[in-house]
């Protein structure tokens, strides 16, 4: 079933619209509403937003492509998004990604069979002095190394096994 706002959500978007001069100011809060509820914003969802809110699809698509916290497809419960920009590369992010791929048994862009982890890439996370960096959901992890990565993955597995 594709994404739909509730009447209450549509009302709150319209309230927000009444406070801004340009509808493009709604793009980020609206995308965040979809991301929070569904975990991703697909092409069908973008077209729904365009139809429902009268805001051009390209504005939504650009924001999804640019900001690391938005996903354009369904992901695992935890998405590990590695910074692929130069400082992190120079500090070993490629090797760390390979290590993580081996640990999880999946390649970049894939999701583990238990649906727990996805691997993704991001542009600079703005934390270059503590490279290499990664997002796990909305949480930023810096000065990463193999030990830190392994213990994070173990912790997540344990937490989810006991639920
Ligand atoms: S280059 Fe990775 S955080 Fe900036």
TrEMBL record:
It comes from the Bacteria. The keyword Metal-binding applies. Pfam families: 2Fe-2S_thioredx. [2Fe-2S] cluster binds at residues 83, 88, 124, 128. InterPro entries: NuoE-like, NuoE_dom, NuoE_N, Thioredoxin-like_sf. Its EC number is 1.6.5.3. Belongs to the complex I 24 kDa subunit family. This is NADH:quinone oxidoreductase I, chain E. The lineage of its organism: Bacteria, Pseudomonadati, Campylobacterota, Epsilonproteobacteria, Campylobacterales. The gene is nuoE.
């Amino acid at each position: 079933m594709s994404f739909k706002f509730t009447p209450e959500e549509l009302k709150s978007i319209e309230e927000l619209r009444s406070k801004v001069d340009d509808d493009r100011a709604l793009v980020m809060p609206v995308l965040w509403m979809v991301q929070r509820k569904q975990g991703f914003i697909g092409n069908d969802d973008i077209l729904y937003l365009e139809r429902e809110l009268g805001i051009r699809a390209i504005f939504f698509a650009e924001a999804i492509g640019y900001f690391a916290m938005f996903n354009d497809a369904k992901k695992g419960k935890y998405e590990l998004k590695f910074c692929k920009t130069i400082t992190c590369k120079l500090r070993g992010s490629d090797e760390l990604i390979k290590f993580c791929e081996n640990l999880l048994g999946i390649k970049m862009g894939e999701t583990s069979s238990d649906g727990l982890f996805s691997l993704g890439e991001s542009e600079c996370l703005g934390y270059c002095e503590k490279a290499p960096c990664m997002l796990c959901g909305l949480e930023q992890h810096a000065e990463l190394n193999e030990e830190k990565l392994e213990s994070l993955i173990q912790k997540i597995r344990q937490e989810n096994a006991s639920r």
